[in-house]
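Workshop exercise sheet. Pairs work together: one partner reads the sequence aloud, the other fills in the structure field after running the prediction. Swap roles for the next sheet.
Pair: D.N. / O.F.
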Amino acid sequence: MRGVFWRQLLRFAILHVPPWIEPIVMAFWSAFFLLWGPGRRGVMRNLKVIKPGSFGIANFFRCYRVFWNYAWTIADNVRFKELRTIPDWEFAGLDHFQAMQASNGAILLTAHMGSYDLGAHLFSETSTRRIVMVRAPEEDLETREFEEHHGAEGLRIEFNTRATELALDLLETVREGAIVAIQGDRVMGSISTLPATLFGKAATVPAGPFALAMAARVPIYPVFVVRIGRRRYRLVTSRPIEITRSRNRDDDFARAVAQWMTELEDVVRNCWFQWFTFEPYWPEAAS
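Structure field:
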Protein backbone atom coordinates (compact mmCIF):
# COMPACT_ATOMS: atom_id res chain seq x y z
CA MET A 1 0.00 0.00 0.00
CA ARG A 2 2.77 2.43 0.86
CA GLY A 3 5.41 1.19 -1.56
CA VAL A 4 7.19 3.35 -4.12
CA PHE A 5 5.56 1.54 -7.08
CA TRP A 6 2.33 3.50 -6.71
CA ARG A 7 4.19 6.83 -6.64
CA GLN A 8 6.10 5.86 -9.77
CA LEU A 9 2.89 4.77 -11.48
CA LEU A 10 1.19 8.05 -10.60
CA ARG A 11 4.13 10.04 -11.98
CA PHE A 12 4.05 8.01 -15.20
CA ALA A 13 0.30 8.62 -15.57
CA ILE A 14 0.64 12.37 -15.02
CA LEU A 15 3.27 12.56 -17.75
CA HIS A 16 1.48 10.34 -20.29
CA VAL A 17 -2.30 10.22 -19.73
CA PRO A 18 -4.21 12.81 -21.86
CA PRO A 19 -6.08 15.37 -19.69
CA TRP A 20 -9.45 14.56 -21.26
CA ILE A 21 -9.38 10.98 -19.96
CA GLU A 22 -8.20 11.97 -16.47
CA PRO A 23 -11.67 11.99 -14.81
CA ILE A 24 -12.30 8.42 -15.98
CA VAL A 25 -8.97 7.25 -14.60
CA MET A 26 -9.66 9.02 -11.30
CA ALA A 27 -13.07 7.38 -10.96
CA PHE A 28 -11.54 3.97 -11.60
CA TRP A 29 -8.64 4.31 -9.16
CA SER A 30 -10.86 5.78 -6.45
CA ALA A 31 -12.59 2.39 -6.34
CA PHE A 32 -9.32 1.17 -4.83
CA PHE A 33 -11.00 1.81 -1.48
CA LEU A 34 -12.85 -1.49 -2.00
CA LEU A 35 -9.52 -3.34 -1.78
CA TRP A 36 -8.02 -1.40 1.13
CA GLY A 37 -10.12 -2.72 4.00
CA PRO A 38 -8.33 -1.01 6.93
CA GLY A 39 -8.37 2.39 5.20
CA ARG A 40 -12.03 2.08 4.23
CA ARG A 41 -13.09 1.01 7.72
CA GLY A 42 -11.03 3.79 9.30
CA VAL A 43 -12.74 6.46 7.20
CA MET A 44 -16.20 5.02 7.84
CA ARG A 45 -15.65 4.87 11.60
CA ASN A 46 -14.52 8.49 11.64
CA LEU A 47 -17.58 9.50 9.61
CA LYS A 48 -19.82 7.95 12.28
CA VAL A 49 -18.44 10.49 14.76
CA ILE A 50 -18.45 13.44 12.35
CA LYS A 51 -22.00 12.62 11.24
CA PRO A 52 -23.74 11.14 14.30
CA GLY A 53 -26.72 8.98 13.49
CA SER A 54 -25.55 8.32 9.93
CA PHE A 55 -26.19 4.94 8.36
CA GLY A 56 -23.41 2.55 7.38
CA ILE A 57 -24.49 2.39 3.73
CA ALA A 58 -24.41 6.19 3.47
CA ASN A 59 -20.94 6.32 4.99
CA PHE A 60 -19.82 3.64 2.53
CA PHE A 61 -20.57 5.97 -0.39
CA ARG A 62 -19.15 8.93 1.53
CA CYS A 63 -15.98 6.89 1.90
CA TYR A 64 -15.71 6.65 -1.89
CA ARG A 65 -15.98 10.42 -2.07
CA VAL A 66 -13.06 10.76 0.37
CA PHE A 67 -10.90 8.48 -1.76
CA TRP A 68 -12.02 10.28 -4.94
CA ASN A 69 -10.89 13.65 -3.56
CA TYR A 70 -7.67 12.10 -2.31
CA ALA A 71 -6.91 10.77 -5.80
CA TRP A 72 -7.38 14.24 -7.32
CA THR A 73 -5.27 16.05 -4.74
CA ILE A 74 -2.26 13.75 -4.91
CA ALA A 75 -2.46 13.86 -8.71
CA ASP A 76 -2.55 17.67 -8.66
CA ASN A 77 0.45 17.63 -6.36
CA VAL A 78 2.49 15.46 -8.73
CA ARG A 79 1.31 17.48 -11.75
CA PHE A 80 2.63 20.64 -10.12
CA LYS A 81 5.99 19.11 -9.22
CA GLU A 82 6.52 17.49 -12.64
CA LEU A 83 4.85 19.93 -15.04
CA ARG A 84 4.55 23.09 -12.90
CA THR A 85 0.79 23.13 -13.55
CA ILE A 86 -0.50 25.67 -11.03
CA PRO A 87 -4.15 25.27 -9.99
CA ASP A 88 -6.53 28.19 -9.66
CA TRP A 89 -6.55 29.56 -6.12
CA GLU A 90 -8.93 31.64 -4.08
CA PHE A 91 -8.47 32.87 -0.54
CA ALA A 92 -10.62 32.94 2.56
CA GLY A 93 -9.16 35.00 5.37
CA LEU A 94 -6.71 36.77 3.08
CA ASP A 95 -5.93 39.39 5.74
CA HIS A 96 -4.73 36.65 8.13
CA PHE A 97 -2.67 35.05 5.37
CA GLN A 98 -0.98 38.36 4.55
CA ALA A 99 -0.32 38.97 8.24
CA MET A 100 1.38 35.57 8.44
CA GLN A 101 3.58 36.39 5.47
CA ALA A 102 4.52 39.73 7.01
CA SER A 103 5.24 38.29 10.45
CA ASN A 104 8.73 37.81 11.80
CA GLY A 105 8.36 34.07 12.12
CA ALA A 106 5.19 32.03 12.57
CA ILE A 107 3.77 28.51 12.85
CA LEU A 108 1.47 27.38 10.04
CA LEU A 109 -0.76 24.71 11.54
CA THR A 110 -2.81 22.59 9.18
CA ALA A 111 -4.49 19.20 8.85
CA HIS A 112 -4.43 16.08 6.69
CA MET A 113 -6.88 17.49 4.19
CA GLY A 114 -6.89 19.14 0.81
CA SER A 115 -3.36 19.11 -0.53
CA TYR A 116 -0.87 19.90 2.22
CA ASP A 117 2.11 19.23 -0.04
CA LEU A 118 0.76 21.28 -2.94
CA GLY A 119 -0.01 24.23 -0.67
CA ALA A 120 3.46 24.14 0.88
CA HIS A 121 5.20 23.87 -2.49
CA LEU A 122 3.19 26.73 -3.95
CA PHE A 123 3.77 28.85 -0.88
CA SER A 124 7.52 28.31 -1.14
CA GLU A 125 7.55 29.36 -4.80
CA THR A 126 5.34 32.42 -4.50
CA SER A 127 6.54 33.88 -1.21
CA THR A 128 9.79 35.51 -0.20
CA ARG A 129 9.32 34.03 3.27
CA ARG A 130 11.30 30.84 3.86
CA ILE A 131 9.13 27.87 4.75
CA VAL A 132 10.03 24.60 6.46
CA MET A 133 7.56 21.74 6.24
CA VAL A 134 7.54 19.15 9.03
CA ARG A 135 5.92 15.83 8.30
CA ALA A 136 5.93 12.19 9.31
CA PRO A 137 8.32 10.12 7.20
CA GLU A 138 7.09 7.57 4.70
CA GLU A 139 7.26 4.11 6.22
CA ASP A 140 8.86 2.68 3.08
CA LEU A 141 12.47 3.83 2.62
CA GLU A 142 12.32 3.77 -1.20
CA THR A 143 9.13 5.84 -1.12
CA ARG A 144 10.78 8.39 1.16
CA GLU A 145 13.79 8.68 -1.15
CA PHE A 146 11.50 9.04 -4.17
CA GLU A 147 9.52 11.85 -2.52
CA GLU A 148 12.68 13.70 -1.48
CA HIS A 149 14.18 13.41 -4.98
CA HIS A 150 11.05 14.82 -6.61
CA GLY A 151 10.50 17.66 -4.14
CA ALA A 152 10.30 21.32 -5.12
CA GLU A 153 13.32 23.55 -4.87
CA GLY A 154 13.34 26.11 -2.10
CA LEU A 155 11.20 24.00 0.21
CA ARG A 156 12.92 22.42 3.18
CA ILE A 157 11.29 19.26 4.48
CA GLU A 158 12.03 17.86 7.93
CA PHE A 159 10.83 14.51 9.23
CA ASN A 160 9.74 14.27 12.87
CA THR A 161 11.97 11.33 13.71
CA ARG A 162 14.61 13.18 15.77
CA ALA A 163 12.44 15.05 18.23
CA THR A 164 14.94 16.87 20.45
CA GLU A 165 17.41 17.83 17.74
CA LEU A 166 14.64 18.86 15.35
CA ALA A 167 12.94 21.00 17.99
CA LEU A 168 16.11 23.03 18.51
CA ASP A 169 16.60 23.42 14.75
CA LEU A 170 13.03 24.59 14.26
CA LEU A 171 13.25 27.03 17.16
CA GLU A 172 16.28 28.67 15.57
CA THR A 173 14.57 28.66 12.17
CA VAL A 174 11.46 30.42 13.47
CA ARG A 175 13.51 32.99 15.35
CA GLU A 176 15.26 33.77 12.07
CA GLY A 177 11.88 34.75 10.59
CA ALA A 178 10.88 31.60 8.74
CA ILE A 179 7.47 29.94 8.73
CA VAL A 180 7.26 26.35 9.98
CA ALA A 181 4.35 24.32 8.55
CA ILE A 182 3.14 21.42 10.69
CA GLN A 183 0.13 19.11 10.52
CA GLY A 184 -1.58 19.27 13.89
CA ASP A 185 -4.68 17.13 13.64
CA ARG A 186 -3.39 13.66 14.50
CA VAL A 187 -0.57 11.98 16.37
CA MET A 188 1.77 9.61 14.56
CA GLY A 189 4.59 7.75 16.24
CA SER A 190 5.95 8.31 19.73
CA ILE A 191 5.75 12.10 19.96
CA SER A 192 4.58 14.31 22.82
CA THR A 193 0.86 15.00 22.89
CA LEU A 194 -1.69 17.34 24.43
CA PRO A 195 -5.27 16.42 25.38
CA ALA A 196 -8.00 17.79 23.15
CA THR A 197 -11.66 17.40 22.27
CA LEU A 198 -12.97 16.98 18.72
CA PHE A 199 -16.68 16.53 17.96
CA GLY A 200 -17.30 16.10 21.67
CA LYS A 201 -14.93 13.16 22.06
CA ALA A 202 -11.54 12.98 23.73
CA ALA A 203 -8.55 13.11 21.40
CA THR A 204 -4.88 14.06 21.40
CA VAL A 205 -2.87 16.44 19.23
CA PRO A 206 0.88 16.89 18.74
CA ALA A 207 2.39 19.09 21.43
CA GLY A 208 5.27 20.24 19.22
CA PRO A 209 3.60 23.15 17.38
CA PHE A 210 2.31 24.70 20.59
CA ALA A 211 5.56 24.25 22.50
CA LEU A 212 7.48 25.74 19.57
CA ALA A 213 5.15 28.75 19.36
CA MET A 214 5.48 29.36 23.10
CA ALA A 215 9.28 29.07 23.08
CA ALA A 216 9.73 31.28 20.00
CA ARG A 217 6.95 33.70 21.05
CA VAL A 218 5.32 33.60 17.62
CA PRO A 219 1.66 33.15 16.59
CA ILE A 220 0.09 30.01 15.18
CA TYR A 221 -1.96 30.44 12.01
CA PRO A 222 -4.53 27.71 11.23
CA VAL A 223 -4.37 27.19 7.45
CA PHE A 224 -6.39 24.68 5.43
CA VAL A 225 -6.15 23.82 1.73
CA VAL A 226 -9.57 22.83 0.38
CA ARG A 227 -10.19 21.42 -3.08
CA ILE A 228 -13.25 23.08 -4.68
CA GLY A 229 -13.08 21.72 -8.24
CA ARG A 230 -10.86 20.36 -10.94
CA ARG A 231 -7.49 21.99 -10.29
CA ARG A 232 -9.20 24.62 -8.15
CA TYR A 233 -8.41 25.19 -4.47
CA ARG A 234 -9.31 27.51 -1.64
CA LEU A 235 -6.74 28.53 0.97
CA VAL A 236 -8.52 29.12 4.28
CA THR A 237 -6.55 31.06 6.90
CA SER A 238 -8.08 31.68 10.32
CA ARG A 239 -7.26 34.23 12.98
CA PRO A 240 -3.95 33.55 14.72
CA ILE A 241 -3.65 31.61 17.94
CA GLU A 242 -1.61 33.59 20.43
CA ILE A 243 -0.14 31.55 23.27
CA THR A 244 0.06 33.80 26.30
CA ARG A 245 2.60 32.72 28.88
CA SER A 246 1.52 32.57 32.49
CA ARG A 247 2.50 30.65 35.58
CA ASN A 248 0.28 27.76 34.54
CA ARG A 249 1.78 26.25 31.40
CA ASP A 250 -0.93 23.58 31.11
CA ASP A 251 -3.69 26.22 31.01
CA ASP A 252 -1.78 28.18 28.38
CA PHE A 253 -1.59 25.13 26.16
CA ALA A 254 -5.20 24.16 26.86
CA ARG A 255 -6.53 27.51 25.63
CA ALA A 256 -4.45 27.34 22.46
CA VAL A 257 -5.44 23.74 21.75
CA ALA A 258 -9.14 24.54 22.30
CA GLN A 259 -8.98 27.35 19.72
CA TRP A 260 -7.19 25.08 17.25
CA MET A 261 -9.74 22.29 17.69
CA THR A 262 -12.60 24.74 17.16
CA GLU A 263 -11.10 25.75 13.80
CA LEU A 264 -10.36 22.15 12.86
CA GLU A 265 -13.83 20.91 13.78
CA ASP A 266 -15.49 23.63 11.73
CA VAL A 267 -13.46 22.80 8.61
CA VAL A 268 -13.81 19.02 8.98
CA ARG A 269 -17.57 19.32 9.53
CA ASN A 270 -17.98 21.22 6.27
CA CYS A 271 -15.26 19.40 4.30
CA TRP A 272 -15.35 15.88 5.75
CA PHE A 273 -14.80 14.51 2.23
CA GLN A 274 -11.30 15.98 2.28
CA TRP A 275 -10.13 14.89 5.72
CA PHE A 276 -7.67 12.19 4.71
CA THR A 277 -7.45 10.27 7.97
CA PHE A 278 -7.51 6.62 7.04
CA GLU A 279 -7.06 5.27 10.56
CA PRO A 280 -9.68 5.53 13.34
CA TYR A 281 -9.10 8.93 14.88
CA TRP A 282 -10.74 8.38 18.26
CA PRO A 283 -9.75 5.45 20.50
CA GLU A 284 -13.32 4.17 20.78
CA ALA A 285 -13.69 4.31 16.98
CA ALA A 286 -10.91 1.73 16.65
CA SER A 287 -12.80 -0.87 18.67
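Discussion prompt: The chain has one domain: 4-286. What would you look at next?
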